[in-house]
From TrEMBL:
The organism's place on the tree of life at top rank: Bacteria
Signal peptide: none
UniProt keyword Magnesium, yes or no: no
Subcellular location: Cell membrane
Species name: Coralloluteibacterium stylophorae
Keywords: Cell membrane, Membrane, Transmembrane, Transmembrane helix
Name the UniProt record assigns to this protein: MMPL family transporter
């Protein structure tokens, strides 16, 4: 009931990001979730004539502007209604048209002459309603200024690519880019708008951007995991049926694992109030070791001995393995990452539940054992041949030295710091995204300038001072274009200066009379214009707070933020070609301007993340060794249990490193799981002692455990998704090494007299 009523699954990747330390890292975390780049969808319409594509683009923009899923939609259309009526008088404070030239009779005479030409042209109908109130057409100038700074060509009034074959749109979503549930609803709304606009035509729509990729990643991961999971489940059922020849065994074996999942979900729901989707995916992977617990009980059953007696005999060894594995996962609690804390709680609660379920729930459900796997002739012969294999003392040191040699001497890079390398998004889609960004002039996803100030006004003033140097950078080709908040909302000081230069009513009416002399305009035709100018002369300057709930607010909010107790202006850049010139500009501009490299910020965050996790894992390993020491007490027994585990991890790391694999967080998680499996194998081989019957039963149990685990993770290793492939390959190799080394190093030799003749 608790899981059903309280559990909420989150898709916010920031839960799995470490606590940022630097200002760049904090800004990166904010931008990942709610930044304009993370909420931008790039839409391309193709496979129809340009006129048909333009018609679809017009219809889609109109429909999407009415949708609550989108904050803004742009396709190159000029929207005369983009400026709400209450802001119309402010057009003379927001544009720079009269900064150098006053609004006098000469300017008005030229504007009125142009309007006469406009009215006589085919486009006259577009401006006829504007002229009386806006003879200088500042409304259109403002609408043009609010378009992206670098735009594609227009065909039939909307954006097209350079080849003229694709109509282009930009849509900014309300939902965070890495919230796949909300982005799915947004994409559904986009698809409905396209289907309605296309009608029976053959046009095709392509959508790109972080939101589209997050939905794709979730769907692709879930699809592959579902398919591979189905095959693995079927394989495990067949394996258990063959191993135990009883139809009830697969059902009973699933009880501890199902109980572990439910209790883990309930624990996370109770403590955190929700769970991340990654926690679910990794959590079910990590508690997969719990499937080994009932297998040990099933394989150690003996006719004439109750299941309660069998489980009591196994319990100390099983409990040692469980406690040691749980201690390893304590590292997640000190990682400083909420997502990993959720994962640690889910796994520890689940493993303890599975162990208790195996200890107390399963024995009453098991009937009397009908066979003893230790009496199997086939299994016995296999065991005897394995037991006869030589076990030279030099084997373990030689393997350890060889692995260390590969690890220490290989020149290959160790770590994968690029988060983009882990994405399951196909390379062709990433290339298409880059191409669309180039066509649309969308902001660069890596570079931006950050302007800091005590408040919004200070930032806007500073941005206005930087504009000339930014124009110079664009003129030299260092960047194609830039966008800053001051281009949309000038500083209060600039607005006041423009307001002071506006003529009063008498002066403006006199200038209008002089400008209109001899022209076919009525004397009172521009009364609305005069009223707007006088309203602008009396109006207080616009601020970020006073433009809320207007089209201007979306852009300003994206480019002007409150961050770390101060105001921050983001100068987004398009077509960055010379990062060194940008860096030199930022360095010369002063301490309040810096160039933010989101790639470097993300990599530094990953490095800090990894260092914290590795340090915590080091502490966990010490706790694990201490637990084994307390349980086994004798150094020789400790060495026989720990040596296979440590050597296996070294061998896996060396093999992957020699193969050119760069390690990431998922490899670390997989190594933890591999260590837990190896500890389980070594403990039970060591527990079997010198009794041949127990050795054969343990061999059977660990053979079933390792085959079932290898089946699951070998399938994951075949996945085309980097995350699943990293986990599958690492754990699969760990299973092979753990089984072989535990067999060679952890088991005691069988007495010669106990062997069958």
């Amino acid at each position: 009931m608790l899981v059903g009523t309280r559990l909420e699954v989150s898709g916010d990747l920031r839960l799995f990001m470490p606590t940022p330390v630097t200002g760049e890292q904090r800004l990166l975390i904010d931008e990942l979730g709610d930044g304009p780049g993370a909420r931008l969808l790039l839409v391309a319409l193709a496979d129809a004539e340009p006129a048909a594509l333009a018609r679809i683009s017009h219809a889609m923009r109109a429909a999407l502007q009415e949708s609550d899923a989108f904050e803004a939609v742009a396709n190159g259309e000029f929207d005369q209604e983009a400026i709400p009526p209450r802001l119309l008088p402010y057009r003379y404070l927001l544009t720079s048209s009269f900064d150098a030239t006053p609004l006098d009779a000469a300017v008005l005479r030229a504007a009125l002459g142009e309007r006469l030409e406009d009215l006589a042209s085919p486009a006259g109908g577009m401006v006829e309603d504007l002229i009386a109130r806006d003879p200088t057409l500042e409304t259109l100038a403002l609408a043009e200024a609010w378009q992206p700074s670098q735009q594609p060509q227009r065909i039939d009034g909307v954006w097209f690519d350079a080849a003229g074959r694709q109509a282009l749109l930009l849509a900014q979503t309300r939902a965070a880019g890495f919230d796949p549930d909300a982005q799915q609803a947004t994409l559904d709304a986009l698809r409905r708008a396209f289907d309605d606009a296309r009608g029976d035509g053959d046009a095709r729509m392509t959508v790109s951007g972080p939101g589209a990729f997050s939905v794709l990643m979730r769907g692709r991961t879930a699809g592959e995991a579902g398919t591979l999971g189905g095959v693995a489940t079927l394989g495990m059922i067949v394996l258990l049926l063959v191993a135990y020849r009883a139809w009830r065994i697969p059902l009973l074996g699933a009880l501890p694992l199902a109980s572990a999942a439910l209790v883990g979900l309930a624990a996370v729901s109770l403590v955190f109030g929700g769970i991340h989707g990654i926690t679910l995916a990794f959590g079910f992977t990590l508690i997969g070791v719990a499937q080994d617990y009932p297998v040990h009980l099933f394989s150690h059953r003996r006719p004439g001995v109750s299941a309660r007696q069998d489980v009591r005999r196994l319990w100390p060894t099983l409990l040692t393995g469980v406690v040691s594995t749980c201690l390893a996962y304590l590292a997640f609690f000190v990682s400083g990452v909420d997502g990993l804390r959720q994962l640690g709680l889910f796994t520890i609660a689940g493993l303890l539940t599975a162990a208790l379920c195996t200890r107390y729930l399963l024995p009453p459900l098991l009937g009397e054992a009908r066979r003893d796997v230790g009496d199997s002739a086939l299994l016995g012969r296999a065991w005897d041949r394995l037991a006869a294999l030589p076990r030279p003392r030099w084997l373990a040191p030689a393997l350890g030295l060889a692995a260390l040699g590969v690890i220490l001497l290989s020149p290959r890079p160790w770590w994968e710091n690029n988060l983009a390398a882990l994405t399951p998004v196909p390379a062709d889609l990433l290339a298409r995204d880059a191409a669309l960004r180039g066509e649309l002039g969308a902001p660069d996803v890596r570079w931006m300038l950050v302007v800091a100030g005590a408040d919004a006004e200070a930032v806007l003033v500073r941005e206005e001072a930087l504009r000339a140097e930014l124009d110079a950078l664009a003129a030299t080709g260092a960047v194609d274009a830039y966008d800053l908040a001051a281009d949309y909302l000038p500083s209060t000081a600039t607005q006041r200066a423009r307001r002071a230069r506006l003529p009063d009513r008498d002066a403006l009416e006199t200038a209008l009379a002089e400008a209109g002399a001899g022209l076919p305009f009525r004397a009172d035709a521009f009364a609305g214009f005069v009223d707007d100018v006088q309203a602008a002369r009396q109006a207080p300057p616009l601020t970020p707070a006073t433009v809320e709930d207007t089209p201007l607010a979306v852009t300003v909010e994206n480019l002007l933020l409150r961050h770390d107790g101060a105001s921050v202006g983001l100068v987004t850049l398009s077509g960055v070609r010379d990062a060194d010139a940008l860096a030199a500009f930022a360095a010369a501009a002063g301490d309040d301007v810096r160039l933010l490299d989101l790639k470097s910020a993300s990599e530094s965050l990953v490095v800090a993340y990894r260092e914290r996790v590795l340090a915590a894992l080091g502490v966990s390993i010490l706790l694990l060794v201490a637990t084994v020491a307390i349980a086994l007490r004798r150094p020789r027994r400790m060495l026989r249990v720990l040596a296979p585990v440590l050597l296996s991890m070294l061998a896996v790391v060396a093999l992957l490193h020699a193969a050119g694999v760069a390690f990431n967080l998922f490899h670390i998680v997989a190594l933890i799981l591999g260590a837990g499996l190896g500890l389980d194998y070594a403990l039970f081989f060591e527990h079997a002692g010198g009794d041949r019957g127990d050795q054969v039963r343990t061999f059977h149990a660990i053979l079933v455990c390792s085959l079932s685990t290898l089946l699951v993770f070998a399938l994951l290793g075949l996945s085309g998704i980097p995350v699943l492939r990293a986990i599958g390959t690492t754990v699969g190799l760990a299973v092979v090494f753990n089984f072989a080394l535990a067999l060679l190093l952890a088991r005691a030799p069988a007495p010669r007299e106990a062997a069958p003749r």
